[in-house]
Amino acid sequence: MEKVYERSSTLMNIPMHYCPGCTHGNAHKLIAEVIDEMDLKGKTIGVSGIGCSFLSYFDIDVVGAPHGRPPATATGVKAANPDSFVFTYQGDGDCSAIGIAEALHAAGRGEKFTTFMVANGVFAMTGGQKSPYTLVGDRTTTTQDGRDIERDGHPMKMAELVAQVPGAYYVARGSLSSPKNIAKSKEYIRKAMKYQMDGKGYTFVELLSTCPTNWGISPVESLKKVDEEIEAYYPLGEILTPEGVA
Ligand code: SF4
């Protein structure tokens, strides 16, 4: 029988600890598949932030960074290993709140590594607090009656911010909510990785993700929320390409 699918060799064949319905696993799978397809397994270094994600599921070299500091850490890793594929894997809490300065300055310096920001609108691992990506009206442990603009401010759009910084080379926002969106996200991941390996500037791919546990809804309802509510505020697509801002 013809084999039509094979598990990525870059992902360890061990059970993941993520909650049912969490889409971190989808993000891992896409990144691992592109590492395989581009034959980068032996020369990839991942830098993880603080959060639910666990880069040790990847069969690659991994460096752990303090909360929000993966871009600063990756700057040193890439400087020491200029031929390697270097990426940071961060949540929206890590990247767009605590680490926003590091990400924007990495873009400004045109650092030649890639940031994957997996956004689910909460500080998931530390207790479900509001993040810059919490939608107006959404309840978190620090916005128990829903995010209120007057009190809590507007949700931020990290990809659009990064795209405005000279030195950024490629910026896109995908979603992990459906097979169609997952396939498109893989295309963005592949482009970002290729641009990095071609020696271009900073590349940033945002991936809209779920957190059924902290959202307090089912996995199916979570995917629907991403598709119907979150993507309405965070439009999908390429935001900065070599041709300019979309
Ligand atoms: S708490 Fe949320 S982000 Fe963390 S593993 Fe569970 S569903 Fe995923």
Query: How helical, in percent, are the residues?
Result: 25-40%
Taking the sheet with the most strands, its summary is: 8 strands, mixed
Q: Tell me which CATH architecture applies here.
A: 3-Layer(aba) Sandwich
Q: Ranges with pLDDT <50 over ≥5 residues?
A: none
Q: pLDDT average, as an integer?
A: 96
- Assembly annotation: single chain
Describe the structure.
A hairpin with a 5-residue loop joins strand 5 and strand 6. Strands 2-1-3-4-8-7-9-10 form an eight-stranded mixed sheet, with helices on both faces. The mean pLDDT is about 95. The protein has one domain: Thiamin diphosphate (ThDP)-binding fold, Pyr/PP domains (Rossmann fold, 3-Layer(aba) Sandwich). It is an alpha/beta fold and about 250 residues long. The protein has nine helices and ten strands. The longest helix has 19 residues. Helix 3 packs across helix 4.
Quick description:
This protein is of the alpha/beta class. It is 36% helix and 20% strand. The strands form 2 sheets. Strands 2-1-3-4-8-7-9-10 form an 8-stranded mixed beta sheet, sandwiched between helices. Strands 5-6 form a two-stranded antiparallel sheet.
